[in-house]
Design a protein that fits this description.
The chain has two domains: about 160 residues, no CATH class; about 140 residues, P-loop containing nucleotide triphosphate hydrolases (Rossmann fold, 3-Layer(aba) Sandwich). It has twelve helices and four strands. Strand 3, helix 12 and strand 4 form a beta-alpha-beta unit. Helix 2 packs antiparallel against helix 3 and helix 2 runs parallel beside helix 4. The longest helix is centred in the middle third of the chain and has 39 residues. It starts with a helix and ends with a strand. About 30% of the residues are buried.
Length: about 325
């Protein structure tokens, strides 16, 4: 049996997923924030499941349900209004004779809109964080959705919403050019006697700061592409599957090897092969969105840390 708010939250999560796929161009600049709101609403659904499982129907529980429903509606309104405003301006710009002035007015207004939508999404995330704390303090916990099938489906959707790719990055990239330059210098430096040499480089900070975008810019930098023999991008995120991560990296680093052969390899063989490839070739591997130190501990045996290797690792994480 679903709580009143569950269909609303499910509908909004579905719409956000559709927008991320169909409106990718319009969402440039706020895509990561929109993804995070989708993830947060999925977690809210899990709280609703627990409230329903306990059959509570007091005034406090009803208020929680109403507040979750309001948050979902507000998130939908913020994103939909932003998309409609950009779509309307884009159509006007195409049909206006004074293209030069309209174009730059459009770019400026688009920048303002993105700033506003980021601020509104940040405010919604604060509300979600505060509500999550209140729910847990009241004994309502986040539990898996329904039966095993629906739980797996929800987890898969959450994983897909959070997944990142090296070739999909934000066009608006202001103020971080110096950071890109410094990171590229660290990654290209092979003088181990200098104090500037790092085998592993980490970008850390809270969600929405642009860690992934920064890593994408570095990954696609021309100097980086020329320097390394092989590059691989892996989105680790929450509840990573070690085999999937290692297989995806190896497929990128050794394209001459049959993918099916890599897919059939056991964990210890994958670990050993990836370790050796990084000794034989100059590789750059990006591990994006690592949430827990334990996730790195699971993966690190596949990387020649501290050994004489010219390969480099770039990590992004919220956990400093």
């Amino acid at each position: 049996m679903e709580t009143v708010a569950e269909p609303v939250v499910s509908f909004v999560v579905e719409r956000i997923g559709d927008w991320l796929i169909k409106e990718a161009n319009l969402l440039t600049g706020v895509r990561s924030q929109v993804k995070e709101i989708g993830d947060d609403l999925i977690r809210m659904k899990c709280f609703l499941k627990d409230a329903d499982a306990k059959h509570k129907a007091g005034a406090i529980e009803r208020n929680f349900v109403i507040e979750i429903q309001d948050i979902a509606y507000d998130a939908e309104d913020v994103i939909e209004t932003f998309l409609l405003r950009l779509s309307f301006r884009r159509e006007r710009r195409r049909g206006d004779i004074q293209y030069f002035f309209i174009r730059y007015g459009f770019v400026f207004n688009k920048f303002i809109d993105r700033h506003n939508v980021r601020s509104k999404i940040k405010a919604i995330k604060v509300r979600i964080s505060q509500l999550s704390t209140s729910l847990q303090n009241y004994g309502i916990r986040s539990i898996a959705e329904g039966d095993q099938g629906s739980s797996s489906s929800a987890h898969e959707r959450q994983r897909l919403l959070r997944r990142t790719y090296p070739h999909v990055f934000e066009e608006d990239f202001i103020g971080l050019e110096n950071d890109v330059k410094k990171l590229v210098e660290h990654l290209l430096n092979e003088d181990k006697d200098s104090g500037n040499w790092h085998q592993t480089v980490c970008i850390s900070g809270m969600g929405g700061l642009g860690k992934t975008t920064l890593a994408q810019k570095v990954y696609n930098h021309n100097d980086v592409k020329r320097h390394f023999d092989g590059l691989a991008w892996a989105c680790v995120s929450q509840q990573p599957q070690k085999q999937d991560v290692l297989q995806g990296i190896l497929i990128k680093l050794i394209p001459e090897k049959e993918e099916e052969e890599i897919r059939r390899m056991r964990d210890e063989d994958l670990t050993g092969l990836l370790h050796q490839v990084q000794l034989d070739k100059r590789c750059l591997i990006v591990l994006d969105d690592i949430w827990e130190k334990g996730d790195w501990d699971i993966l690190k045996s596949a990387f020649p840390i501290g050994e004489r290797s010219c390969s480099k690792i770039l990590l992004t994480t919220r956990n400093k």
